[in-house]
Design a protein that fits this description.
alpha/beta, six-stranded mixed sheet, 11 strands, 50% helix, binds guanosine-5'-triphosphate, binds magnesium ion
Length: 462
C-alpha cells in the first residue's frame, strides 16, 4: 500500500485554516472556528479515505502571530561565519528552549510542516500584502517543503487576490490557488489537489485517486439529490383526498393537505441536508404559500380516463357500464350526472372493480382535493435551489441557506413535466395516500424520468 500524502495547513492566525479543513473534509464539526485570532491551539489531523484506504492526511495548525520576532531569534542561532540551510537552522531552533516557551505555537507549526509532504499556506485575500506575511513565508520556506499559497475569501468582493498574486510571484511562488472555504468554486477542490500534484510529483498517484473519487461522489450525490426531489414531487402530485360534499369536510381536508405537504417538504429538506453532510440548522424553509389546494371539479382527469379506458379495453364490462365509460371518455358527463349514475356504478360489481374506489366515490358526489400546480412548481424550484446551494456550500459556512420563493421562468410558467401530469392519476404512487405501491414499475420509471429533468441546471432547461 502506498503511503498517504501528508499536508500541513499553515498560515497567519484567523485566515481560515480550520475553515479550509472543514470544507476539504466535508465535516462541519472539525476543530473550532471563530472570528477571533488564536483559536486553534494544537495540531489536529483528519484523514481522507478512498475505498477505505487513507490517501491524504490533512493537518490543521495554530496560526502564526509574530514571524518577525521568530526570524530575529533564528538569526541569533547562527554561529559566527556559518550559513546553515533552513532545515538545519530550524532543527536547532526546535531543539532549543525557545521552542518550548516563547515560540511554542510556531514550533508546533514548523514541526508539522517538516513532517509533511507539502504545506498549504492559507491567506486572507482581503488583507493588504504586509511585510509580516513575507516574514512568515520566509520562516515556512526554511522547512524545505513545497508550499502552495491558497488565497482564501475570494468570494468576497473586497478581496485583493490580484495584489497577492503579484507579491507572491515576486517571492518565487507562482503556483497558487483561489479558494473560499464558505463558498468554494465548484472545481476548487480539484484545482487544489491538481496544483499540489504539480508541486509534489511523488504524491501524484494518491492525489489523482482522491480527485477521481471526489468527482464520482459529487456525481452520485447530485443524482441522489435529484431523486429525493423527484420523490417529493411525485408524492405531492399524486396526493389526493376524497372529500364528502360538505363545507366542514372540505375545510378539514384542506387543512390536512397543507400540513402534510409542508411536512413532506421538510422531510425532503432534511434528507438533502443529510446527503450533503450539513446540519438541520443549515437550512430554513420559508413559509410555503400553500393556498387552498385544487378541487378537481372535473374528476375525470385525462390520465384517469386513459387508465379507465385501458381497463375497459379488457372487455370485462357489460352494457350499461361500458356506456358510462364511453360517456366519461368523451367528457360528456357532469358531477350531477355522475351522481345519478352512482347507483348503477355501485351495483355493477363488475364495473365497480374496474373503476376502482376513486372513480366510484366521485360518482357518489365526493370531490377530490389535490395539490395545486403552482405549489408543485414552487416545491420543485425551492428544492432544486436548495440542492444547488448545498452543492456550492463549503462546510465552513455558518449562515443558513434560506429557501425562498424564487423567480424562475421554466418551472414557474412552462409546461409541468410529464411524469407529474401522469402522477396525478395514480394515487397509489404517493406515500401520502393510504396503501401506496411505491415499488410499482411505472412509478419508478416516471421517477427516473423526473430525476433526469431535475438534474439539469435550472436556467438551461427549456
Ligand atoms: N466569508 C468567508 N469567511 C471565512 C472564510 N474562511 C474563514 N472564514 C471566517 O474567518 C474566521 C476565521 O476562521 P478560522 O477557520 O477559525 O481561521 P483560522 O485560520 O483557523 O484561525 P486560528 O485557528 O485562530 O489561527 C471565521 O469567522 C470564519 O467563519 C472564507 O473563505 N470566507
Ligand atoms: Mg484554526
Amino acid at each position: 500500500m502506498t503511503e498517504s500524502v501528508v499536508l500541513a495547513v499553515v498560515g497567519h492566525t484567523n485566515v481560515g485554516k480550520t475553515s479550509l479543513l472543514r470544507t476539504l473534509t466535508r465535516d462541519v464539526a472539525f476543530g473550532e472556528v471563530s472570528p477571533h485570532a488564536s483559536t486553534t491551539r494544537h495540531v489536529e489531523g483528519a484523514r481522507l479515505l478512498v475505498d477505505g484506504e487513507p490517501v491524504v492526511d490533512l493537518y490543521d495548525t495554530p496560526g502564526l502571530e509574530d514571524a518577525m520576532a521568530l526570524l530575529d531569534h533564528l538569526e541569533q542561532l547562527k554561529r559566527p561565519g556559518e550559513r546553515p540551510d533552513g532545515p538545519t537552522l530550524l532543527s536547532r531552533f526546535l531543539d532549543g528552549p525557545a521552542a518550548r516557551q516563547r515560540f511554542e505555537q510556531e514550533a508546533k507549526v514548523l514541526r508539522q510542516l517538516m513532517a509533511s509532504t507539502a504545506g498549504l499556506y492559507v491567506i486572507d485575500a482581503r488583507e493588504p500584502v504586509l511585510p509580516k506575511y513575507r516574514d512568515e513565508l520566509e520562516v515556512l520556506s526554511m522547512c524545505g517543503k513545497p508550499l502552495l499559497p491558497a488565497l482564501n475569501f475570494v468570494a468576497r468582493p473586497d478581496n485583493r487576490a490580484d495584489d497577492w498574486q503579484q507579491a507572491l510571484s515576486r517571492l518565487g511562488l507562482h503556483a497558487l490557488l483561489r479558494f473560499d472555504s464558505v463558498a468554494p468554486p465548484l472545481d476548487g477542490e480539484k484545482q487544489l489537489y491538481e496544483s499540489l500534484a504539480l508541486l509534489t510529483p511523488s504524491a501524484r498517484p494518491q492525489l489523482q485517486r482522491l480527485i477521481q473519487d471526489r468527482a464520482a461522489q459529487a456525481d452520485a450525490r447530485r443524482r441522489r439529490g435529484a431523486r429525493l426531489i423527484a420523490e417529493l414531487l411525485v408524492d405531492v402530485a399524486a396526493y389526493h383526498i376524497l372529500v364528502a360534499p360538505d363545507q366542514t369536510a372540505a375545510d378539514a381536508a384542506t387543512q390536512t393537505m397543507r400540513e402534510r405537504v409542508r411536512q413532506r417538504e421538510q422531510a425532503c429538506v432534511e434528507a438533502l441536508l443529510r446527503l450533503y453532510a450539513f446540519r438541520l440548522k443549515d437550512a430554513s424553509a420559508g413559509e410555503l404559500p400553500l393556498a387552498n389546494g385544487r378541487w378537481e371539479e372535473d374528476p375525470f382527469h385525462p390520465e384517469t380516463l386513459k387508465k379507465v379506458g385501458v381497463r375497459l379495453g379488457g372487455g370485462a364490462l357489460a352494457g350499461a357500464a361500458s356506456g358510462l365509460a364511453i360517456d366519461l371518455m368523451v367528457g360528456g358527463i357532469t358531477l350531477g350526472a355522475a351522481a345519478a349514475l352512482g347507483a348503477l356504478a355501485g351495483s355493477a360489481a363488475e364495473g365497480g372493480r374496474s373503476f376502482g374506489p376513486r372513480v366510484l366515490a366521485k360518482l357518489r358526489g365526493y370531490r377530490e382535493l389535490t395539490v395545486d400546480d403552482p405549489i408543485l412548481r414552487l416545491l420543485a424550484l425551492r428544492q432544486q435551489q436548495l440542492l444547488q446551494a448545498l452543492e456550492a456550500r463549503g462546510h465552513a459556512a455558518l449562515d443558513p441557506v434560506r429557501l425562498d420563493n424564487p423567480a424562475e421562468e421554466v418551472w414557474r410558467s412552462g409546461k409541468l413535466p410529464e411524469p407529474l401530469v401522469k402522477a396525478r392519476a395514480y394515487p397509489e404512487w404517493s406515500s401520502l395516500n393510504p396503501q401506496p405501491r411505491l415499488d410499482a414499475a411505472e412509478r419508478q420509471a416516471q421517477l427516473s424520468a423526473l430525476e433526469r429533468i431535475i438534474s439539469q441546471p435550472l436556467q438551461s432547461r427549456a
